[in-house]
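cron nightly-structures :: item 1 of 1
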Amino acid sequence: MKMMTKFLSTVVLSLTCAVSMAAGGNYPWDKAPNRLNDNAALQNGAKIFVNNCLNCHSAKSMRYSKLREIGLTDEQIKNNLLFTGERVGDMMTIAMTRADGTMWFGAAAPDLTVMARSKSLNAGPPGGDYIYTYLRTFYRDTTKPTGWNNLAFPNAGMPHVLWDMQGPRELTSTVVKQVEKDGQPAWEKVTTVYGPEGYWTSNIEPLVGYNGSASETHRFKALDPQLARQYDSDMADLAAFMTWMSDPSQLKRKQIGVWVLLFLGIFFVIAWRLNASYWKHVK
C-alpha cells in the first residue's frame, strides 16, 4: 500500500511540475549537447545538482546509491555528495518542507526527479533542452522581486543561484512591433539593454516604410567569455544528469532494444526462407 501511495504521489508530482513549468514563454530552446553516454559529464552534473539544486529542490524518487550506475563508488558518494549524515542508500530529500517553501518563496520548489521527462512529454523536444536553455537565460532585472528574470520562463520565482559560475553579462532585447500613432498604424523598434547590475535603458526608433512583421530577438554579451563558456559546459552536464535521473534505465533499455531489433530482423529472414522451403512443392 505504501509503495502504491508513493508511486501515485510521484505521478501527480510529475504532472504538477509539467503544468507549472509549461507556463513559460515562447523563447526557442537551445539544443543541449548529448552527454548521456559520458560518465564524467554525468558525474559533474551530479556534483552541481547536489551542491546547488538539492537545497531548495528535492529528488525524492532517486537514491544516492543509484549514482553507482554512472561510475561513482560508495566512497566517492560519501566524500563528495553526502554532507549532513545521510547514507548512500537514502533518498535525495531536503529538510525544507512544502509549507516552508510556500511561506519563504511564495510557492514550494518542485521536485526535480522527473522534471526532464515531464518537460519532454508535455512540450515535445527533449526535456534536457529546456533545462539547458532555462539555466542559461537568466538576466539581471531590478524590477523583479528576486532581482532576476528569465527568457525561457519569464517572471520565474527562482533567482539565478548559479550567477557566480556564469559571470557578469548584459542582455540586449530588440522588439519590432506595430503601434498606433495619430490614429494610424505604425511600426517601431524598441531596444532595451539590461546591464550586469540589472539596470536597463530603452530606446524607441520609428520604422518609416517598414513592410516586415513583428519580431523579438535577444542577445547576451558575456563580460567574462571564458567563465561563460565553462558555465555553458557545466549546464550541459547538469541537463544530462537530470535527463538521466528522470529515467536511469533509458540507456540500457535502448541497448537492449537494438539487440531485440537485430534478433527480429535475423529471425524474419530465417522464417521467410523456411516458409519458402516448406511451401515450394505446394501448388
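cron nightly-structures :: done
The longest helix spans residues 250-279.
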